[in-house]
Automatic annotation (TrEMBL):
<dbReference type="GO" id="GO:0045087">
    <property type="term" value="P:innate immune response"/>
</dbReference>
<dbReference type="GO" id="GO:0042981">
    <property type="term" value="P:regulation of apoptotic process"/>
</dbReference>
<keyword id="KW-0399">Innate immunity</keyword>
<keyword id="KW-0395">Inflammatory response</keyword>
<protein>
    <submittedName>
        <fullName>NACHT, LRR and PYD domains-containing protein 1b allele 3-like</fullName>
    </submittedName>
</protein>
<dbReference type="GO" id="GO:0006954">
    <property type="term" value="P:inflammatory response"/>
</dbReference>
<feature type="domain" description="FIIND">
    <location>
        <begin position="1"/>
        <end position="180"/>
    </location>
</feature>
<keyword id="KW-0963">Cytoplasm</keyword>
<dbReference type="InterPro" id="IPR001315">
    <property type="entry name" value="CARD"/>
</dbReference>
<dbReference type="InterPro" id="IPR011029">
    <property type="entry name" value="DEATH-like_dom_sf"/>
</dbReference>
<dbReference type="Pfam" id="PF00619">
    <property type="entry name" value="CARD"/>
</dbReference>
<dbReference type="Pfam" id="PF23679">
    <property type="entry name" value="UPA-FIIND"/>
</dbReference>
<dbReference type="GO" id="GO:0005829">
    <property type="term" value="C:cytosol"/>
</dbReference>
<dbReference type="Pfam" id="PF13553">
    <property type="entry name" value="FIIND"/>
</dbReference>
<dbReference type="InterPro" id="IPR051249">
    <property type="entry name" value="NLRP_Inflammasome"/>
</dbReference>
<keyword id="KW-0391">Immunity</keyword>
<feature type="domain" description="CARD">
    <location>
        <begin position="188"/>
        <end position="280"/>
    </location>
</feature>
Length: 285
């Protein structure tokens, strides 16, 4: 008995050494050199969805961001969480890349206010161990952290801004970060900005065009945005891009603006708010 092995470039016959009720056992398979070469070539052109996980350590006047980049894998996510938890770190919620990346491509991280970033590039590959990460040193604190991920062709593949109030987690660290003579701020874990940022991707996917238009009117009425900002958004034809610009614009304006947007959404589309699991808060609209 022989097994016919069909491949894209042809067929081959494999010798069967043992047959059971459900299986045929091949002890010495004939590996095609062409198949190996083709598999290697094709593996360089595979699109994969990726995870980005950010952890920050605040040390007096220094920030240590660690940004993990790896192909989506629940086991790897758990490995990162366990590793960072053992070091007492907290995860900062950031947006996922909206497009897939090429496997085996490399990426460079840019944080304008950083003094060092290592390694210079990370290659996107499947790993058995804990994923690789960028480690940066920021010699100033109390500032928003702007991050950009550049692909092989130096195009921006992903970008994010982490506001100060998302990495200041308690009064002690806030006093040290903001410096003497400035009041300490309370913890903002669970803040409306954090709440809105966490649903950014789903908001962009689900919100309808009519709701976006009414939302713009409401944001203008309550002075969250000005007339110029409203006009710049109105000319955007694509629904998803318009939604993306609106939520990013509001996120940059802080917690009160985010609260007003959440309240407006609750009035305009209660079903969407239920799906996003966000609740109205105590800022009058």
């Amino acid at each position: 008995m022989k097994i016919l092995h069909v491949e894209e470039h042809g067929v081959s016959l494999e010798e069967v050494h043992e047959v059971t009720r459900f299986h045929a056992k091949i002890l010495h398979p004939k590996f095609s050199a062409i198949s190996v070469i083709l598999s290697y070539i094709f593996s360089w052109n595979v699109d994969v969805h990726c995870e980005l996980m950010l952890y920050l350590t605040v040390m007096k006047e220094t920030l240590i961001p660690r940004l993990y980049l790896f192909p989506s894998n629940p086991g790897q996510i758990q490995a990162v969480e366990q590793q960072e938890k053992s070091q007492g770190s907290s995860r900062i919620l950031i947006s996922r890349p909206e497009q897939s990346f090429k496997l085996n491509s490399s990426f460079r991280l840019n944080i304008p206010c950083s003094t060092t970033i290592n390694p210079p590039r990370i290659h996107l590959i499947h790993r058995d161990a804990t994923p690789s990460f960028f480690r940066a040193v920021v010699k100033m604190t109390g500032v928003d952290i702007e991050m950009q991920l550049f692909s092989d062709d130096e195009r921006i593949a992903w970008k994010e801004i982490v506001p100060t109030d998302e990495y200041i987690s308690d009064i002690r660290s806030t006093s040290a970060v903001l410096g003497a003579g400035r009041p300490a701020q309370r913890s903002l874990t669970g803040s409306t900005k954090l709440q809105l940022r966490s649903v950014r991707t789903e908001f962009v996917k689900r919100v309808s065009r009519p709701v976006l238009n009414e939302l713009l009117d409401g944001l203008l009425q309550h002075t969250v945005i000005n007339q110029e900002e409203m006009e710049s958004v109105k000319v955007i034809a694509e629904r998803a891009e318009k939604a993306r610009v609106i939520i990013d614009m509001v996120l940059r304006k802080g917690n009160e603006s985010c609260s007003r947007m959440i309240n407006l959404l609750g009035e305009l589309d209660p079903c969407l708010c239920t799906e996003l699991q966000i609740n109205s808060v105590g800022v009058p609209t």
